[in-house]
């Protein structure tokens, strides 16, 4: 089973992914955790390039192709082999991030982005995508606090520094995109307690599993 997690910064994605891993492991399943950008060897260099504050001059199209390159390599070298080995693969961000950030965020055409994603994922779409939804003001506050704690504000602070209006657009983008893909994408309200949020994610996983059977 292949599950991806999406949402703006500060939704608690990392915490929830860890809970989902524990849930599957408790059932005796082997779980592989990964992320985008940066889930493959070459991807780790692409991630540095994409998120470094010095690279603010990347054009939206350059950025797009770097994300797509990262995804193509990640799917071929990591995700597909891990799924074929029978593991549950949990991925922090995937193709929907491109549609939402480069499309609804940066203004590139979402239809074209979807087609480019089709090329990058090469037929491998998630069984389920969980969008963690939160008010951007709350999300950004959480993300800024986390960055200060982790001391990563300098290296990877490019996105968090963007305007609140950008994040509002991203949130709306996720909601619009999710409504167009109800068969695969589930929106979960992430402002509740961590346990409540996880309960909702578990429900989504269980219904996706029953649909698969
Ligand atoms: P990251 O530090 O992983 O953010 P988060 O903790 O919020 O997941 O940085 C990834 C950033 O890259 C995030 O702001 C969204 C952006 N992104 C895109 O713009 N397009 C994409 O296709 C992907 C995968 C990520």
Short description:
This protein is of the alpha/beta class. The protein contains nine helices and five strands; from the N terminus they run βαβααβααβαααβα. It has one domain: Rossmann fold.
CATH class: Alpha Beta
Please give the CATH architecture.
Answer: 3-Layer(aba) Sandwich
Per CATH, the superfamily is P-loop containing nucleotide triphosphate hydrolases
| Secondary-structure element order, N to C | EHEHHEHHEHHHEH
Structural class: alpha/beta
Number of helices: 9
Number of structural domains: 1
- Gross morphology is globular
Map the helices and strands.
Layout: E1 2-6, H1 13-26, E2 31-35, H2 41-51, H3 60-84, E3 88-92, H4 95-105, H5 110-121, E4 128-133, H6 136-150, H7 153-156, H8 164-180, E5 185-189, H9 194-212
Parallel strand pairs: 1-3, 1-4, 2-3, 4-5
Descriptive notes:
- The protein has 213 residues and is an alpha/beta fold.
- The chain has a single domain, classed as P-loop containing nucleotide triphosphate hydrolases (Rossmann fold).
- It has helices at residues 13-26, 41-51, 60-84, 95-105, 110-121, 136-150, 153-156, 164-180, 194-212, and strands at residues 2-6, 31-35, 88-92, 128-133, 185-189.
- Strands 2-3-1-4-5 form a 5-stranded parallel β-sheet, with helices on both faces.
- It is globular.
- Residues 9, 36-37, 51, 67, 92-93, 97-98, 101-102, 156, 159 line the site of thymidine-5'-diphosphate.
- Thymidine-5'-diphosphate (TYD) binds at residues 9, 36-37, 51, 67, 92-93, 97-98, 101-102, 156, 159.
């Amino acid at each position: 089973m292949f599950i991806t997690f999406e949402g703006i910064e500060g939704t608690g994605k990392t915490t929830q992914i860890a809970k989902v891993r524990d849930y599957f492991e408790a059932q005796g399943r082997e779980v592989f955790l990964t992320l985008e950008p940066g889930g493959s060897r070459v991807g780790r260099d692409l991630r540095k390039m994409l998120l470094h504050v010095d690279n603010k001059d990347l054009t939206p199209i350059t950025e797009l192709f770097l994300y797509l390159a990262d995804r193509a390599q990640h799917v071929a070298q990591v995700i597909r082999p891990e799924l074929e080995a029978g593991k549950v693969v949990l991925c922090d961000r995937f193709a929907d991030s491109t549609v939402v950030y480069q499309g609804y965020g940066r203004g590139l055409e979402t239809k074209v982005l979807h087609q480019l994603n089709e090329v990058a994922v090469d037929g491998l779409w998630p069984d389920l995508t969980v969008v963690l939804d939160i008010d951007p003001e709350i999300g950004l506050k959480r993300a800024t606090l986390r960055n200060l704690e982790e001391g990563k504000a300098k290296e990877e602070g490019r996105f968090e520094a963007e305007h609140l209006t950008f994040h509002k657009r991203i949130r709306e983008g996720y909601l619009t995109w999710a409504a167009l893909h109800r068969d695969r994408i589930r929106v979960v309200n992430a402002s509740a307690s961590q346990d409540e949020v996880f309960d909702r994610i578990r429900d989504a996983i269980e219904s996706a599993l029953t649909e698969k059977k």
